[in-house]
């Protein structure tokens, strides 16, 4: 399988920071669903944004960073503008903040099409309406004209998904797409995303701190700790994880039918922050 | 629908009520200025040499022998009939005088705010976008200079350089001496009057004369607008929806003007309206330097000679202008921000 994205030794450094936020991260992405899990500050979101070249102040370096044959490190901003929103896009965490409060939802969805293809307002609107329907919004015509403060979080996130998949990208980064949602709508939104991603053969990078979610939803999982990938494993084999950090995380999860005693706590080992060989 | 309408009407009624209360407070204030100031209106009217009988007659004619509350009610009645009394200095009704000087100031202030707002907002956005890089520092210096150079000084330097030196603009006054009295006074807005009369030469002369004082005034008020725009914009650029727009493939420029700018419009309207109000209140200094027969000079000179009818009316007018600008920015708020509907 030809990879959509190849990352070798990606490091991200913010000027003035004592250490790199991301340290030699390597992975490839095909038409699959790749999960990246890690705690807050582990660098998982930074990886996502670095791939879209949306970290204006940060310094990126990598041996290889290619997306469909384009060297992302060498690409000009003009080239990036053609990629972003057309061939790669990103679903952000909280629709309360990620939608512009003073623009109608539908217009925001349609804007992507209008940016990347030559089409009339009407065509863009029709496309956006069809996409709103695809994310199971029952009354797209009405929702099109609503403002973000007039919709629920679940609907907001479906609008976000519609907006980001509308241009048929090859790669979608979902940065904690369900963390801001109620547990009840979480599954619904996930299954919509899953369905669309599978049907369109999109390469998905799912960034999350929820091990269970990633295990059920992804094909492969990268575990990040302190800016490094400490383990890369097929989602189905997560139970056979080798790295002590991953094992610690798994052990710290409550289990139905498990004992009522206190759950084990991570005992952090400075060695986890050291470079190590990960089979890519 | 009915509920919606009722809610709207309720909102309007509430606002009208608060405006009425503010106006009433303002009237009490102007009345107090007229009565409490150590200044005897009857004496000012009759002069130092008048006989006690004459003084007494005027004193009673002005109603100064009546109790305070009665005087206030009389004042209220007069104001409601747009009777603001007679100016001691000019012998004309105060309203008549003000209608002469206010248009000159409105003209100047309007040009100044158009210049100041467009300059200030552009610079502010540029500074925010280039935060902590050289354009930001340069803009900070420019706006700090506008803020700290006294306007009478920049006015004189401006006249020296652009009028006396290059001869690019007209000198002091609203037009060249040559044209004074040529245009029939209809609105007292010189630009409108001259355009109505088809006197394009006068119109050009008026433009020539307004450009320098208006740009200097605008420059000085743009300093504040720049600073505020910068901080509003920085606030918005940190929001997630800006990232969303960038992810969609919009360029930086498109993101700023199509997405972020719309969200600072509301705040900008408020500060620009306030800056405009401050300009209308009178830029005494620049009016003095440019011999501009405006409201600021009128207010100051009457204050100095103690023409209280004129002063009270001016204060009232300034208050009304600010109330009006507040209403205007409220209305624009509702138009610009869908969340207020």
Helix-strand pattern of chain B? HHHHHHHHHHHHHH
Spatial gap, N to C terminus of chain B? 13 Å
Under the CATH scheme, which class of chain A?
Answer: Alpha Beta
Shape verdict of chain A: globular
Q: For the record, what CATH class of the domain at 94-305 in chain B applies?
A: Mainly Alpha
Taking pLDDT < 50 over at least 5 consecutive residues as the criterion, the unreliable ranges of chain A are none
Summed up, the domain count of chain A is 1
- Helix coverage percent of chain A: 25-40%
- What fraction strand of chain A? 15-25%
Query: Could you please say which CATH topology of the domain at 94-305 in chain B applies here?
Result: MetI-like fold
Number of helices of chain A: 10
Determine the mean pLDDT of chain B: 87
Give the arrangement of secondary structure elements:
The complex is a heterodimer of chains A (280) and B (341).
Chain A: E1 5-13, E2 22-29, E3 33-38, H1 44-51, E4 59-61, E5 64-67, E6 70-71, H2 77-83, E7 88-91, H3 95-98, H4 105-116, H5 121-134, H6 140-144, H7 153-165, E8 171-175, H8 183-200, E9 203-208, H9 211-217, E10 220-225, E11 228-234, H10 244-251
Helix pairs in contact in A: 4-5, 4-7, 5-7, 7-8
Chain B: H1 2-36, H2 41-46, H3 52-61, H4 68-80, H5 94-129, H6 134-148, H7 151-165, H8 190-197, H9 200-237, H10 240-247, H11 252-280, H12 284-289, H13 295-305, H14 308-336
